[in-house]
Structure to design on (520 residues):
């Protein structure tokens, strides 16, 4: 019997929220197994004896447009505890006789919430003043409380911000406890799991490793797999998972696009071919990529060209290896969220990732993406479980398109060489000053702007270099790292004095949102 069928679990019914996987992630962090199922696919019979609690996710829908969703009320009438979050809170209220309407005042961002009564759900959730801050994201709200429900907490704009029917173990929250912006949000989820659902801990990184290995074996069978290896933590973890799952049927292909960081191709070959003894094919496609990207400035076109060319190269080598049916890659959940909706809902596409939205519609190889529902820090923990070195696990994220999306505008060999040097000096300075591991991602970018400068008695007219360093937990949200003035000044001087082609350095202090981490 599979893990999903034989293990006590929390069932998450997904209504298309971009935060659904964050709910699952918080549950995993608390040591409990969960399963996500789309509201379009859930049926009453799916409620098996191993489901100890149900969470209804948020989503872009609204409950008074009944044609856009279907929900069987019987699913939540079996005595199993239910927690509705945002849209899920509104669904829970409506199917139990309450009313939902468009809010007079929309709530997006932080809001103060005030305690009205005690509840198992909110034990240790509020501060000593019976208040806390929560993250709101809604334009509708419950306007009439369902029968036999009580108000647990309110905000200025949401009278029914937390509600409960203690007897039936039904709970609703208008805010998002799963996001880090909500103070003690994890405490609320913990209370639901252990105080209300009474579920026991049954999940660990080792369980996750074994489940992912099993999933790979179930998907690929005895067929050969090629793995798109970049040397970063994501593709490295995928390679190790595949190595554990299928052994010699794995062929890793490392493509040098010409837009890697300085000396990166040498480091990758050394690590994977010589140290880890993984079957590695090195492809130098620098000229091919740069030729295809010549005179292309649109960022979406860049990503599409890179994604298509990667696939052509992989298919080319798959023919040489013979009997290859699958392509494995290190796609993560934030990549999917930015590129397309996971559940088919109306979530917004932000940009194509070369290994998601950038792939061609027709491919001869089927995809294997074992990490597609995980976040970066979870992948790092999994890497430790797979005995990968700290050097690999702690590497900052590096995009598949490489430096191509860190130089807005046209790509030239000269600009690539300038950017490689600037990035090298920046990253090396972080390591020399013990800052590298404190930062989630850092890089240099070359902007398509030239400015006038003066060096000695001479006028210069050279590129502007942008530095970016951010802190984050999962890549969904991020903030800039606050360097000391002396450090950033030292780096700026080093770049300007050492690299011909750059005469000005700026530091990006924009968070995500509203910006994305990469420029393109």
């Amino acid at each position: 019997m599979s893990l999903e069928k034989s293990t006590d679990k929390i069932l998450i019914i997904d209504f298309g929220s971009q935060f659904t996987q964050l709910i699952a992630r918080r549950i995993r962090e608390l040591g409990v197994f969960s399963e996500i199922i789309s509201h379009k696919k859930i049926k009453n019979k799916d409620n098996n004896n191993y489901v100890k609690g149900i969470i209804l996710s948020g989503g872009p829908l609204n409950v008074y447009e009944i044609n856009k969703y279907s929900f069987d009320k019987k699913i939540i009438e079996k005595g199993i505890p239910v927690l509705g979050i945002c849209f899920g809170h509104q669904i829970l209220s409506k199917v139990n006789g309450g009313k939902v309407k468009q809010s007079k005042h929309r709530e997006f961002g932080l809001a103060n919430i005030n305690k009205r009564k005690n509840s198992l759900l909110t034990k240790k959730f509020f501060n000593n003043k019976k208040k806390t801050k929560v993250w709101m994201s809604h334009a509708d709200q419950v306007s009439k409380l369902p029968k036999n429900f009580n108000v647990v907490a309110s905000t200025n704009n949401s009278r029914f911000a937390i509600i409960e029917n203690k007897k039936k173990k039904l709970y609703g929250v208008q805010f998002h406890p799963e996001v880090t912006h909500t103070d003690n949000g994890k405490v609320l989820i913990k209370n639901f799991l252990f105080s209300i659902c009474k579920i026991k801990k049954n999940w660990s990184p080792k369980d996750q490793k074994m489940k992912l290995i099993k999933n790979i074996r179930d998907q690929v069978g005895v067929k050969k797999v090629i793995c798109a290896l970049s040397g970063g933590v994501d593709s490295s973890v995928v390679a190790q998972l595949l190595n554990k799952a299928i052994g010699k049927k794995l062929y890793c292909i490392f493509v040098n696009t010409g837009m890697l960081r300085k000396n990166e191709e040498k480091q990758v070959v050394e690590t994977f071919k010589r140290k880890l003894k993984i079957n590695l094919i090195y492809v130098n496609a620098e000229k091919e990529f740069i030729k295809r990207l010549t005179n292309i400035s649109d960022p979406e076109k860049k990503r599409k060209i890179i994604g298509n060319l990667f696939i052509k190269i992989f298919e080319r080598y798959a023919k040489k290896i013979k009997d290859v049916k699958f392509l494995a890659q290190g796609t993560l959940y934030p990549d999917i969220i930015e590129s397309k909706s996971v559940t088919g809902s109306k979530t917004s596409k932000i940009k194509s990732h070369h290994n998601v939205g950038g792939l061609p519609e027709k491919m001869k190889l089927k995809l294997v993406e074992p990490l597609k529902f995980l976040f970066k820090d979870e992948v790092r923990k999994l890497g430790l479980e797979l005995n990968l070195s700290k050097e690999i696990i702690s590497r900052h994220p590096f995009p598949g398109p490489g430096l191509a999306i860190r130089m807005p505008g046209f790509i030239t060999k000269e600009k690539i060489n300038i950017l490689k040097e600037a990035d090298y000096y920046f990253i090396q300075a972080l390591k020399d000053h013990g800052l590298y591991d404190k930062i989630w991602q850092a890089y240099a970018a070359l902007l398509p702007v030239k400015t006038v400068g003066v060096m000695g008695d001479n006028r210069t007219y050279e590129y502007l270099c942008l530095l970016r360093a951010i802190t984050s937990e999962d890549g969904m949200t991020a903030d800039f790292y606050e360097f000391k003035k002396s450090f950033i000044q030292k780096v700026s001087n080093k770049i300007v004095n050492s690299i011909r082609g750059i005469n000005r350095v700026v530091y990006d202090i924009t968070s995500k949102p509203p910006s994305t981490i990469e420029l393109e």
Summary: Residues 247 and 278 are 9 Å apart (CA to CA). The first helix runs from residue 3 to 6. The radius of gyration is 25 Å.
